[in-house]
Design brief:
The complex is a heterodimer of chains A (about 550) and B (about 325). With about 550 residues, chain A is mainly alpha-helical. Chain A has 17 helices and no strands. Chain A has one domain: Cytochrome C Oxidase, Chain A (Up-down Bundle). Among the domains of chain B are: about 120 residues, Cupredoxins -  blue copper proteins (Immunoglobulin-like), CATH 2.60.40; about 90 residues, Cupredoxins -  blue copper proteins (Immunoglobulin-like, Sandwich). Classes of the chains: A mainly alpha (about 550), B alpha+beta (about 325). Bound molecules: copper (II) ion (2 copies).
Chain lengths: ~550, ~325
């Protein structure tokens, strides 16, 4: 009965599928607003994230120009504090998460041989909630300025006493609303992956990217609600006179830190697990070898997800917890490095003995491998409590997490974008532009964030709008700013390449990389219904089986 | 005092955690170097393998036969799970050792304990230092923005800080003396250090605390015990004012300054701003931001917002006469 009722809705949704040539701007807009197609929603997520990436990038550049010289007068403290608050919030909530959720949205149904996500309309709701969250956040500029409490908004800076303007309300509201969107996306991924797989695709046979999306979704389910609760408490404090974080009236500044980091640490893995998935698709294809140790990789992913829920207070070593508590969190955080190490070793083993083709996706994947390692190792330094007491809240931390989020998340995401762009558009990206983009980013990135570690060693705290000359910090800050400037053309090239390749790029065909997962079995771009007939799957690499009928994968799995 | 100033200016300011002068900062430094060697080795090995793979197995043309497919190997997986696990175990052990060295419990002041106890209160964007006791002797005076401590040459003279905040979270960080400890409203934390090297140790608030977080600077003056005791005796005195400055003092006391500032020995008893009793004994103004010169003091009173935009002392639009008088008065608060 229920199925019959659903039918017309779905039909209506597909009727809006655009005919590329006849689409005028208003028609395109209409389609965007009305669509429940996971592919269009996925693309909209990615475009939204790229727009916010540019905004967040401009904020970062302004920050860097202010720090170019000691006692520089370019930007005052209030504006500077607003800039880094908006930069951090934007990059985490409106670039990192949406770009990964968007890519997942596009790929998961295709990779598991489904026609759409489990709940297509909920999917559209998730996107719009995220977008509205972002707009709400930026609406603060209309009301007179950015929030200035930093992206982790330590109480009681968010209380009315210390933040009078409505900006803080918009910040909390924007994150809460987009959080609902993220939450629905998480639920949708879990339902889709558990219930919509093609015949024959047991959970042990899903593509690795899908497996990482599953665990990302689980983390979303655990991590976002505490944040939503904490944001609601801020809004109640500010607007209805409660005292959750109002220390003067018996509230607790400490409570916020626990709630925030209970979200904040898993968030790091929400931002990296899908990337692990993407490079786990790219590296095998461009080494022409099957992913080494799939089961161990899968177990490592689950282990990382579990452990990451129990390490949050490693952000709080300096708050004066007991030594035993500190030690537990240090040990748990260090343990995360074991499954992470397993992943790195397996990727290297996949490359070993392969036929490595350094096409653009692989170039970015190798960039990811070489840089993410460093971010992981500086993470080990930070987990060691006494070392962290010197490093926490210094520029070293800023260097560390940018290394993870750019060297890790962004490089990996770019690998994914270059890998799947032909599938999404039917055209190849320009390899020449891609390698310019890569090398500018690689060099610019190292120059930007490498010196930050040194500045941290030399005692420079984060979030300062200015500093005195003669402390040995000037030079390192100048190199950082130069590095940031070198990165700028890289992003411009990416945008240029993404746009112009739409018509200039070589036609891609169904499977330009000779890859093995299901999304490459359908046309590029895929039709609205994804597959004419739902394929039946026997192994993790169905297309390998097709091209090697004599030696199929399922014999070995 | 002047010799100390010389000494302080001769030494180039240095905030490096790799240049420690106190036992806890030293054990952190030693641990850090060890951890960096371990992570550095891992880095070299893994990057070398990556480079080898790229050089050895890279093909410039696609196509050709697919290489042998290797699906995995249990012994290898176990090997590279166990090896990191051993490293992690070792890291936990050395972390524990140093952690117990660095984070010690706060003792109670005892007679002749050679220890200094100070309560530090963080304010948006300056530091309040309440000297509790030294060598078992009760002190109980307050000063601001410049922490004086004795150096212990033959025997240790530990300094114990009790850390509180009056408004938002701050963090006390002087890298050469100790790691960070946060000042959290509603909680009491503590930290300690000791040093045998006289000198000026710089640091600053390390937990973002609002607008002027960047200028919440810390100055720790470590001086020989005789100098330190002289300083203590002096700081404990109330402000003394010669007869010819009574008019100037009146000008100060008739302003709203007294609501926020304290000058011991007068009716000025505010606690919202730094204690000014011995203002001119300090080297800087505005929490370490500018040198404490008569010109800077004057500029500060004309408009603090020009110097430290957003700070919690407003401009008063004082007329020239009042300004002269107040500056004259403050200049004798040595
Ligand atoms: Cu964390
Ligand atoms: Cu502070």
């Amino acid at each position: 009965m229920a199925v019959v009722e659903q039918e017309p809705v779905l039909l209506r949704a597909y009727q809006f599928t655009p005919e590329p040539d006849s689409a005028s701007w208003s028609a395109v807009l209409h389609i965007c607003v009305m669509t429940v197609d996971h592919k269009k929603i996925g693309i909209m997520y990615v475009i939204m994230a790229l727009v916010f990436l540019v905004i967040g990038g401009i904020e970062a550049l302004l920050i860097r120009f202010q720090l170019l010289f000691p006692r520089n007068n370019l930007i005052g403290p209030e504006t500077f504090n607003g800039l880094f608050t908006m930069h951090g919030t934007t990059m985490v909530f409106f670039v990192g998460m949406p770009i990964l959720i968007g890519i997942g949205n596009y790929l998961v149904p295709l990779m598991i041989g489904a026609r759409d996500m489990a709940f297509p309309r909920l999917n559209a709701f998730g996107f719009w909630a995220t977008l509205f969250g972002g707009l709400l956040l930026y609406f603060c500029f209309v009301t007179g300025g950015a929030p200035t409490m930093g992206w982790f908004a330590y109480a009681p800076l968010t209380e009315h006493t210390f933040a009078r303007s409505a900006a803080t309300d918009f910040w909390a509201l924007g994150l809460a609303v987009s959080g609902f969107g993220t939450l629905t996306a998480g639920i949708n991924f879990i339902a889709t992956i558990l219930a919509m797989r093609a015949p024959g695709m047991t959970l042990r046979k899903i593509p690795f990217f899908v497996w990482t999306m599953l665990w990302t979704a689980v983390l979303i389910l655990f991590a976002i609600p505490p944040l939503t609760v904490a944001l609601t408490m801020i809004l109640l404090d500010r607007n209805l006179g409660t005292h959750f974080f109002d220390v003067q009236n018996g509230g607790s500044a400490f409570l916020w830190q626990h709630l925030f980091w209970f979200f904040g640490h898993p968030e790091v893995y929400i931002l990296i697990l899908p990337v692990f998935g993407m490079v786990s698709e790219v590296i095998p294809v461009f080494s022409r070898k099957v992913l080494f140790g799939y089961e161990f990789m899968a177990a490592a992913t689950a282990a990382i997800a579990f452990i990451s829920l129990g390490v949050w207070a490693h952000h709080m070593y300096a708050v004066g917890m007991s030594r035993v508590v500190d030690l537990y969190f240090a040990a748990a955080s260090l343990v995360v490095s074991i499954p992470t190490g397993i992943k790195l070793f397996n990727w290297l083993a996949t490359m070993y003995g392969g036929r490595i083709i350094l096409a653009s996706p692989m170039l970015f994947a190798v960039g990811f491998l070489s840089m993410f390692l460093i971010g992981g190792l500086t993470g080990i330094m930070l987990a060691v409590v006494p070392f962290d007491l010197q490093l926490t809240d210094s520029y070293f931390v800023v260097g560390h997490f940018h290394w993870v989020l750019i060297g890790g998340t962004l490089f990996g995401t770019f690998a994914g974008i270059h890998y799947w762009y032909p599938k999404v558009t039917g055209r190849m990206l320009s390899e020449r532009l891609a390698s310019w983009q890569f090398w500018l980013l690689y060099v610019g990135f190292i120059l930007t964030f490498g010196p930050m570690h040194v500045a941290g060693f030399l005692g420079m705290p984060r979030r300062i709008y200015t500093y005195d000359a003669g402390l040995g910090w000037d030079f390192w800050n100048q190199v950082t700013t130069i590095g940031a400037i070198i990165q700028v053309p890289s992003y411009a090239i990416l945008v240029f390449n993404l746009i112009t390749s739409l018509w200039k790029g070589q036609p891609a065909g169904d499977n330009p990389w000779h890859a093995w997962t299901l999304e490459w079995a359908t046309t590029s771009p895929p039709p609205a219904y994804n597959f004419e007939t739902i394929p039946t799957v026997h192994s993790r690499r169905p297309l390998w089986d097709l091209s090697h009928p004599d030696d199929p994968d399922w014999k070995y799995e | 005092m002047s010799s100390l100033l010389l000494l302080a200016s001769a030494e180039t300011p240095d905030l490096s955690m790799f240049d420690p002068v106190s036992p806890s900062a030293k054990s952190i430094r030693d641990l850090s170097i060890l951890v960096m060697i371990i992570t550095g080795l891992i880095f070299l090995v893994v990057e070398a393998v990556l480079c080898y793979c790229l050089l050895r197995f890279r093909r410039s043309t696609p196509g050709g036969n697919e290489p042998p497919q290797i699906y995995g190997s249990q012994p290898i997986e176990i090997a590279w799970s166990v090896a990191p696990a051993l490293i992690v175990f070792m890291l936990v052990l050395i972390t524990t050792r140093t952690l117990w060295e660095v984070n010690t419990d706060l003792p109670k002041p005892r007679a002749d304990d050679r220890a200094l106890f100070v309560t530090v209160v963080g304010h948006q964007w300056w530091w309040e230092y309440i000297y509790e006791s030294h060598d078992g002797r009760k002190l109980g005076f307050t000063t601001s923005n410049e922490l004086h401590i004795p150096v212990g040459d033959d025997t240790a003279r530990p300094v114990y800080l009790t850390l509180k905040s009056s408004d938002v979270c701050h963090s006390f960080w002087v890298p050469r003396l100790a790691g960070k400890t946060d000042l959290i409203p509603g909680r009491t934390n503590h930290t300690w250090f000791q040093t045998a090297r006289p000198g000026l140790y710089l640091g600053q608030c390390a937990e973002y605390c609002g607008c002027q977080h960047a200028n919440m600077l810390i100055r720790v003056v470590a001086e020989p015990i005789e100098d330190f005791e002289r300083w203590l005796d002096h700081q404990q005195q109330p402000a003394v004012v010669e007869a010819d400055l009574h008019v100037a003092q009146g000008a100060f006391l008739s302003q709203s300054c007294i609501n926020c500032h304290r000058v011991r020995g007068t009716t000025a008893a505010g606690t919202f701003g730094p204690d000014l009793t011995h203002l001119m004994s300090r080297q800087t103004l505005a929490s370490g931001m500018i040198p404490n010169t008569p010109e800077n003091l004057r500029a500060w009173l004309v408009n603090p917002q020009n110097i430290k935009a957003g700070c919690l002392m407003p401009a008063f639009g004082l007329n020239k006469h009042d300004l002269d008088q107040i500056v004259d008065y403050l200049l004798v608060l040595r």
